[in-house]
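FAQ

Q: What does a record look like?
A: Structure on top, sequence underneath. For example:
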């Protein structure tokens, strides 16, 4: 048995007073005051440190010099290491829009991979079912309508697909959202040029989140009539059925803008995501979006990844752990709420029962934090991670 002594755990979004936590076989078996040290094989005396659940990154393309679209064990090893040492103990590898054979290779690679580092929870298809009018950094050539013919491969791989980003203005998106919901695939809305009627139709049929709010999310606009329609930005901020993914790196979403999102959605409906790329965690070398698929070079400038030739953001290089510290220190958001946005909300969105909080029976994946939200140490299955 592994024993964590004198910790202040954040349980269900609330910072508790000193407890001891017992761990056996990688799971929490007891949370109590003054558990006898003599019963333990190993003791971590944390002297009143804050203990939080490991963060859960539900939207990340890569890190540590590699992208999940490479489709190799080496790539997933290095991505998993990067997430673990930065405090994300679970992550969902996210695809870049690509040709279907390349995407299938990436999915099969995840299916066959058994991570000794950060845990993988399925995959997230950010494409190809996005809008040609809002591709962002995704190659438009590979964007598809989510109709019956173009989605056969999705149902054949539903065992490894956890969530999919869909543009509500895409033809067949209503039908596709209904089918995904039936097959326990979570739908997130994004990369769109849609209007409120289209968005509401998908939300009514099971869509439950917005992909990286304020980044390729449609705004209030007119189409062919004088009547103005709300876009995904406005609907996402005001419809309480929709969680908002937010890249809180003070670049994709500047801190004053995050403050507004937080005021409208509250801590219960925001999921921090890194949207990290291969270049995250690296300080040298040349990198391409999706490991060369789009042939667009990415560089880091002022703490954000950009496509130099297009002068557009490509993704983040900031892990969730640094986002938590940023929000806690610079916006004075209570630490327990920042932690909730980094782990608990993600498991509620995806109906994951065995992680994301500190309760008996859950995985013993922890981060220790200081009072300002800075990451101190990470534990996977109760074992301290070497960094």
């Amino acid at each position: 048995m592994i024993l964590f002594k004198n910790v202040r755990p954040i349980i269900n979004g609330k910072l508790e007073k000193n407890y001891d936590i017992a761990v056996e076989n990688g799971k929490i078996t007891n949370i109590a005051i003054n558990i006898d040290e003599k019963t333990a094989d190993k003791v971590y005396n944390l002297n009143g440190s804050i203990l939080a659940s490991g963060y859960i990154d539900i939207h990340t393309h890569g890190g540590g010099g590699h992208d999940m679209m490479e489709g190799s064990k080496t790539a997933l090893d290095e991505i998993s290491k990067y997430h673990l040492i930065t405090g994300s103990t679970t992550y969902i590898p996210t695809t870049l829009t690509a040709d279907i054979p390349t995407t299938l290779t990436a999915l099969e690679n995840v299916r066959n991979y058994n991570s000794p580092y950060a845990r993988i929870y399925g995959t997230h298809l950010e494409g190809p079912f996005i809008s040609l009018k809002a591709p962002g950094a995704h190659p438009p050539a590979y964007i598809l309508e989510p109709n019956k013919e173009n989605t056969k491969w999705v149902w054949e791989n539903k065992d490894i697909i956890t969530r999919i980003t869909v543009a509500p203005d895409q033809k067949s998106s209503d039908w596709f959202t209904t089918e995904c919901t039936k097959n326990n695939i979570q739908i997130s809305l994004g990369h769109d040029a849609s209007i409120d009627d289209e968005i509401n139709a998908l939300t009514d049929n099971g869509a439950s989140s917005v992909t990286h709010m304020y980044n390729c999310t449609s705004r209030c606009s007119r189409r062919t009539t004088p009547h103005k329609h709300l876009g995904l930005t406005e609907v996402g901020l005001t419809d309480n059925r929709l969680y908002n993914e937010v890249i809180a790196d003070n670049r994709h979403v500047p801190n004053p803008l995050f403050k507004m999102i937080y005021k409208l959605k509250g801590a219960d409906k925001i999921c921090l995501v890194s949207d990290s790329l291969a270049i995250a965690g690296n300080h040298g070398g040349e990198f391409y979006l999706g490991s060369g698929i789009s042939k667009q070079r990415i560089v880091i400038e002022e703490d954000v990844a950009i496509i130099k030739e297009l002068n557009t953001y490509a993704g983040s290089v900031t892990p969730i752990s640094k986002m938590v510290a940023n929000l806690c220190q610079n916006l004075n958001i209570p630490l327990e709420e920042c932690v909730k946005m980094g782990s608990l909300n993600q498991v509620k969105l995806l109906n994951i029962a065995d992680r994301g909080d500190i309760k008996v029976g859950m995985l013993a994946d922890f981060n220790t934090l200081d009072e300002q939200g800075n990451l101190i140490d990470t534990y996977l299955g109760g074992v301290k991670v070497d960094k």
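Q: Is there anything notable about this one?
A: The domain at 2-52+358-384 is CATH 2.30.40.10 (Urease, subunit C; domain 1).
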